[in-house]
Amino acid sequence: MPIKATQTRTPVYSVALCVIAAAVSGCVATQPVPAGAIDPVVSPAMGQVVFAPAVVDAYVLRPGDSVAVNVFGEEDISLESVLIAADGVVAVPLIGDVQMAGRSSSEVGREIEQRLGARFLRDPRVAVNVLAYGSHLITVEGSVETPGVYQFAPGTRLSGGLALAEGATRVSDLRDVAIFRETAAGMQVGRFDYVAVRAGQMVDPVLQPGDRIVVGTDNLSQFWQDLLRTLPAFGLFTSL
């Protein structure tokens, strides 16, 4: 039988955990846990503002994305597939560099139409379509069939992220799923009962680039396990 190593907690460790736990409890104690049927309204607390399907044309192009630029009736100056460079720029025939990163595809299309119409074409019509979301990567680990890093499309939810990893293993604890998320304000973490998610009793959260999904938090360090147990609510992202 393998010997399980034990950890000796130092006073500093215990104090740090207590401080974080107190802060987390204060942040989420007054927020209700989503229950019942899934609410179709976009929920900022669930991270659904940017990538929710209800938000039309909200996706912002990023370096690493592949796009097609279709100038209707002008195949010679259309681009079947082009990668947005690290500086966010794509060279378009006749008009040169176009800043794409940080803008929606419709915004980019309108600029190309204006620049082509100003000098080269009469009433051009342009469509910019995303072919691959190269910047959209998530990490799925823990008790899943195929842990790894996966590319995903905007609007993909937790259920879709687990499907990319071919689902959870038979021995996984689906009632204990964590999502770690880096934001401009710092690290956030959310706990989810995936059994409740599948039953429609908890919101299936929309994923964001860089999310780390952990199925069965027993694989985490003891510090993170203890911290997650202090969260008083499921289904909410909490800043750490």
Note down, in words, how this protein is organized.
- This protein is an alpha+beta fold and 240 residues long.
- It has two domains: 11-54 and 135-239, Outer membrane lipoprotein wza fold like (Roll), CATH 3.10.560; 66-132, wza like fold, CATH 3.30.1950.10.
- The chain contains five helices and eleven strands.
- The strands form three sheets. A six-stranded mixed β-sheet has the order 7-6-10-8-9-11. It has a three-stranded antiparallel β-sheet with strand order 2-1-5, with helices on one face.
- Strand 6 and strand 7 form a beta hairpin.
- The longest helix has 18 residues, at 11-28.
- The relative contact order is 0.17.
Short description:
This protein is an alpha+beta fold and 240 residues long.
CATH structural architecture of the largest domain? Roll
Cα end-to-end separation:
37 Å
Spell out the CATH superfamily of the largest domain: Outer membrane lipoprotein wza domain like
Tally of distinct domains: 2
Q: Taking strands numbered 1, 2, ... along the chain, how are they ordered across the largest sheet?
A: 7-6-10-8-9-11
The coarse overall form would be: elongated
Strand content: 15-25%
Arithmetic mean pLDDT: 79
Q: H/E element string?
A: HEEEEHEEEHEEHEHE
Percent helix, as a range, is 10-25%
The helix/strand class is alpha+beta
Number of contiguous helices: 5
Total E-strand runs: 11
CATH topology of the largest domain: Outer membrane lipoprotein wza fold like
What's the level 1 CATH class of the largest domain? Answer: Alpha Beta
Report low-confidence residues grouped into runs of 5 or more: 1-42, 46-57
In this structure, how is the largest beta sheet organized? 6 strands, mixed
The whole-angstrom Rg is 22 Å
